[in-house]
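Module 6 notes. Inverse folding takes a fixed backbone as the condition and produces residue identities as the prediction. Think of it as a translation problem where the source language is geometry and the target language is the twenty amino acids. Below is one complete input and output pair. Work through it position by position during the lab.
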């Protein structure tokens, strides 16, 4: 197991390095022309273009430019040695990109963790009920609702929920968006996030329910389940200990990758609709203003979480099923 973890960590570092190189190539190298002029925006002063060219090393070889880009991103985490301008800064607001991402992480984490708990719990409940009642009217109703949930775009569902539950009523049931820090008021923190949580979770509830239903129906026909029944175990015990337990293993991979994708940028529409001012909201604002440094920073942030959680999923999966560990 230790050798597997070490190899996976080495692979994770290699992937992160590859992603950083791709970010440099896509944002800096491929577009062509003088990147300093693109970064300076419309009608820039020559002095601004020269300043950007010097800060980013665009007058030097490409490998120096790559190192300078990573230094700027890293100096937002660990203070740099070359002054305050040696960090990744927005060209529109002149704010430190890494600092702004850090400010948005609490809102994004609160949204994603709460939604993940909801979709995992309700997805399991829906999948178990559907599998137990396979072929019956209840199963068909659940299947229809799951398909509706999977088919609804997040931005449309968020707008509908916000309008009918927070804006239109004379006495709204929920607040009209915005984020309240957990440390400031835990009750208002949860109250403001109820709608975003369910809006983000609806898509995954239906999908997880269908996947678990299929896994459970396959497991019910396995030999070990028939053996357990022949030993006289109660149907409930067979369902919990043999069918459900083994059917949940594939959901570990699914959940880890989905949670990483949502945390790494998949919640951008939900944050924008409900004005949560998390990392996704920051990314949307940066894309709208074509502000290149924040877009680069958010891309690296999203890649980091996706790669890290992918590795964690592999560790958990290898612990649950030793057969996948390479020899």
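Target side of the pair, the amino acids:
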């Amino acid at each position: 197991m230790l050798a597997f973890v070490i190899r996976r960590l080495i692979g994770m570092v290699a992937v992160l390095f590859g992603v950083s190189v791709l970010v440099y190539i896509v944002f800096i190298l491929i577009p062509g022309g003088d990147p300093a002029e693109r970064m300076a925006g419309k009608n820039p002063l020559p002095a601004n273009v020269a300043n950007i060219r010097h800060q980013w090393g665009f007058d030097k070889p490409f490998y120096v430019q790559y190192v300078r880009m990573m230094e700027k991103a890293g100096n937002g985490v660990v203070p740099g040695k070359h002054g305050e301008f040696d960090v990744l800064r927005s060209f529109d607001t002149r704010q430190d990109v890494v600092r702004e991402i850090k400010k948005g992480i609490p809102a994004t984490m609160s949204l994603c963790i709460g939604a993940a708990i909801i979709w995992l719990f309700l997805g399991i409940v829906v999948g178990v009920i559907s599998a137990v009642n396979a072929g019956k009217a209840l199963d068909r109703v659940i299947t229809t609702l799951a398909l509706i949930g999977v088919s609804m775009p997040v931005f449309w569902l968020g707008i509908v929920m916000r309008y009918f539950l927070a804006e239109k009523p004379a006495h709204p049931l929920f607040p009209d968006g915005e984020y309240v820090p957990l440390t400031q008021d835990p009750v208002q923190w949860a109250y403001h996030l109820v709608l975003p949580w369910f809006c983000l979770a609806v898509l995954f509830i239906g999908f997880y329910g269908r996947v678990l239903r299929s896994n459970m129906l396959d497991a019910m026909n396995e030999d070990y389940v028939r053996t357990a029944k022949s030993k006289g175990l109660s149907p409930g015990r067979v369902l919990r200990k043999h069918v459900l337990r083994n059917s949940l293993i594939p959901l570990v991979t699914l959940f880890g990758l989905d949670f990483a994708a949502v945390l790494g940028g998949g919640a951008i529409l939900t944050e924008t609709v409900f004005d949560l001012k998390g990392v996704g909201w920051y990314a949307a604002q940066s894309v709208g203003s074509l502000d290149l440094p924040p877009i680069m920073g958010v891309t690296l942030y999203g890649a980091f979480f996706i790669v890290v959680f992918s590795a964690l999923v592999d560790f958990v999966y290898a612990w649950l099923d030793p057969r996948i560990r390479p020899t």
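Reference fact for the lab report: Residues 104-288 form a domain with the MetI-like fold fold (CATH 1.10.3720.10).
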